[in-house]
Amino acid sequence: MGKSTPLKVALLGCGVVGSQVARLLIEQADDLRARVGRPLELVGIAVRRPDVERPGIDPALLTTDADALVARGDIDLVIELVGGIEPARSLILAAIRHGASVVTANKALLAEDGPTIYSAAEEAGVDVYYEAAVAGAIPIVRPLRESLVGDEVTAVMGIVNGTTNYILDKMHTEGADFAEALGDAQRLGYAEADPTADIEGYDAAAKAALLASLAFHSRVQLSDVVREGITSVSKADITAAEEMGCVVKLLARCTLGEDGSIAVGVHPTMVPLSHPLAAIPGAYNAIFIESRNAGRLMFMGPGAGGAPTASAVLGDLVTAARNRVRNGRGPGESSYSGRAMTDPGDVVSRYYAAMTVHDEPGVLAAVAEAFSRHGVSLQAVRQESEGEQARLGVMTHAARHSQVLTAIDELDRMPEVHPGIALMHVEGA
Ligand code: HSE
Q1: In this structure, which topology does domain 7-136+307-325 adopt according to CATH?
Q2: Which of 46, 65, 283, 395 could potentially form a cystine with 166 if both were Cys, beta carbons 3.0 to 4.6 Å apart?
Q3: Confidence bin at 394 (pLDDT 50/70/90)
Q4: pTM for this structure?
């Protein structure tokens, strides 16, 4: 193929991100050609509604037949921005069967069924790149897959959902309650009309599965991730966190245990103000990595939005196109380590338990004893009297989740403790 022969690109989906990808392909055509070594030609865009106004996009490129577009047989690169499981999976597999490399932002599909896609790509000798699937514009997939591949990553912790970070930040900075902050996020377009995937932690859990797979060279799927959303985070939790010198963040936490197993969880977490993740404001994302040799690394930036996410898509597109020009392919899935998942009960963390108790002699001692009986050591206690009752907050040292749950179970049955003990993870040792 001559240097002037274009590589043909098909785009599936032309929403917030897709329209920016199409714009950049047109506006930056000369630079992209120089960087790839051959022109990139956008030959078709699959959309659901062709009649929607799309300024700057040639209507002749639009089609509603995505199946036919990926099956043309002359497409070099397919960009999948449809999202969801089907028809995205079938379209990607068809594109691969027809010899195209694929760039996708589809975290849900890769977290649920990545291995099917990766094996198909391996067999066909094509690339699958997905930088935009985790934390939007932040380069994190390639640093884990390539830059840190000679190191041993021991932990990846991230704020990987902008909507929930916006809501929690608003609760801290403006004293808003959850419903007010969510309404605000929806008005500003940070949260979808149906915010379930964000506020219940599904979006963050899918990203956590991808991060853990990359970091630990193992297969981690969505079903392996212990998930908790932010809908039950109350103003009282926010205040308690502040009084303990922390902020509440929805944290995706992927850790390598001493026994070699992997723990992956998404939880509202009290993060000490001294931790770099505590300072991440608004809808920003950030990922914090600990590795044996590089030490501690932090990546921060916009985790969503048209142009930022399109930047990650274009980075992948140029990389896949360069590989194609050299008749090669980039690194595929690395899952050689086949690590087991840590039993959720064995996950070690600090915890904060908040409860209402009768304010009378011996109650604090009884609560402390319940923790002590199950091997849980206490780090800090705060108490506020409310008439004949007291609001008691207890921060533990690092303990196994099962030990803490057994202690809480026992507390729940004590007559001096009111029903409804709130429990939250605390980051740090
Ligand atoms: N809805 C996500 C967020 C962006 O709020 O961060 C796409 O994953």
Answers
A1: Rossmann fold (3.40.50)
A2: 283
A3: very high
A4: 0.96
